[in-house]
Input
Amino acid sequence: MLQKLASFPGVAGPVVVIVMDGYGLPANDTGSAIAAARKPTLDALFASAPHIRLRAHGTAVGMPSDDDMGNSEVGHNAIGAGQVYAQGAALVANAIAEGAIWNGQAWQEIVAGAKAGRGVVHFIGLFSDGNVHSHIDHLKAMVERAKAEGVRTVRIHALLDGRDVPETSALDYVVPFEAFLAGISDAGFDARIASGGGRQYITMDRYDANWAMVEKGWRTHVLGEGRQFANATAAVNGLREQNPGTIDQDLPEFVVADAGQPIGTIEDGDSVVFFNFRGDRAIEITRAFVEADFAKFDRVRHPQVTYAGMLQYDGDLQLPKRFLVAPPAIKETSGEWFSKMGLAQFACSETQKFGHVTYFWNGNRSGRFAGETWQEVPSDVVPFEQRPWMKAAEIADAMIAAIQSGQYRVLRCNFANGDMVGHTGNFRAATMAVEAVDLALGRLLKAVEAAGGVALITADHGNADEMFELDKKSGQPARHPDGSFKAKTAHTLNPVPLILFDCASGGRLGLRQTEGAGLSNIAATVANLLGLAAHPAWDESLLEVS
Ligand code: 3PG
Ligand code: CO
Output
C-alpha cells in the first residue's frame, strides 16, 4: 500500500495529468509550429505557473542511446509506470548482440517450421532505422542467421517509413538493402523484397482506427495483390512518379513480380516474423495471422504459418503467443497502485492515442485495473492535416464532464494534435493543431479550478516543435533543390514541459528542476499531489511544498 504523506494532505479536488502529444521545447523557434501558434492559455501558464523541463528521449525513457528520439510508447510507459525500463529497441539489440535470440524457442520454431514446409521465412515490418517500431539492423541480422541455419528462401515485406525518419528517405534503405540481399543470395539461398507500401497506407493501423489499412496490407503481403514492379527500388521510383508529392508513409502498396507472378505470397507451411518490436501498430496484423475466428475483414485465404512477433505485443491477451524477445516486464504502475488504494481513475483520448493513455500507460496491458474508467473519442479517418483540430474539443468535453461528476480522484488525457499533425510535415496545419489544444486546455483548466483540483501539463516527446529538417552545421532549415524547406515529420530530441496548474493550494506547491528530471518522475509527483508517498520503485517526486 502507498503510505499517506506526512508533510502534505493532498489537494482536495482531482489531480489531472494532461499529455500534449508531440509538444517539445526547442532550443530556438526556427521551424517551430508551437512558436508560431496563438496560444494564450499556454503563454499564461509559462508566464506565471511553476514549470520545469523533463527529459523525454534516449536513456531517460529506456532507449538504447541519447541519439534516440522519444516516442509515445516509451513516453507513456515512463509516465504511467514512474520508472524507466530498457525498452524493446534496447532489448532486441542486446538479444542479437549476445546471440540469445537465436537460442530462443521462438526463433528455432520459425526456422524449423519453414524447413518442414517450403523453406520460406517472411519478414514483415517497418523498413527503417527509426528505432521507434523497428530497426533495419535487426532485420539484417535475422536474414543472415536464416541463411546460416539453412533456410532456403527469405521474402521481406517492407513498410516504407518517412514518419520516424526523413519523409522521402525510402531509397536510402531500399537500395542498399536490395544490394545486401543480392550479395547474400546464392545457389542455395534466395532473399528478396517481395512487397510493401507506405506504413500509413497499409498494415500498420492501430487501436482499431482503420482496419481497411490492414486488409490492404494482407492482400499485398499474403495474397500478392497490387501494382507490380521488378524490385522494390523500381517500386519506390515508380510509385513516386505515379503519385507526385506523396511522402513515403502515404505511398500505395506494391508487389514484386517475375513475369507477372508475385514472388512472395504467403502460403501454408511458411514462417512469418513480424519484426516490429513496438506493439500498437503490430497488434491488428498479428490478429489477422493468428486468430482462427477472425471477422475484421475477409482474409480470402488464411495460410497456416508459424508466426512470431519480435516481442509479445499485449501481455494480457498474450498476443502473439510466439515471440522472439521477451518484452520489458513493466510492474508497479501508477494505474495499478492508485487502483489498489481504492482511487477512482479516468482516462480519455481519441482513438489515435487511446491506447497510449490506457495500454501503454498501464505497462502494455489491455486490461483495466479496478476503479478505472476509460473513454475513447472516435478519431476521424482522414489525413490529419485536413482536420488539425482533431478531437481536442470532444476530449475536453469528456474530461470536463468527468471532473464535474465528482467521481474521479485521478484523471489523465492525451491531446493527439501536436504529434499526429506534426507527423504530416504540414507546418500551417501543425500551428492550428497547437491552437486547438490551447483552446481545449483553457476550458479544461477552468473545470479543474472549479473542482478545487490541480493539473500537471506535459508531453510524451517533441514533434510540432521542429517542423523543418535543420541543417546540422548552420542550424537553419535545410532546403530542397527547388528552394522549398524540407519538412520534418519525425519526433524531436527536445525536452518537454511539466507545468503545475494549481489554484487549490494557495501557492504552497511548486516543482523542482533536478538535473535528471524526466517523464518517469511524474507518477511520484502525482502521488504526492494526492497526499500519498510514492511507491519505492518509482523515480522521485518533483513536487515542492512550502
Ligand atoms: C507512429 O506510430 O505514429 C510514429 O511512429 C510514432 O509516433 P508516436 O510514438 O507518437 O505514436
Ligand atoms: Co508521434
User: Anything to note?
Assistant: The chain has a mean pLDDT of 97. The pocket of 3-phosphoglyceric acid (ligand 1) is lined by residues 71-73, 132-133, 163-164, 281, 419, 423 (CB under 6 Å). The longest strand covers residues 190-198. The two ends are 26 Å apart (CA to CA).
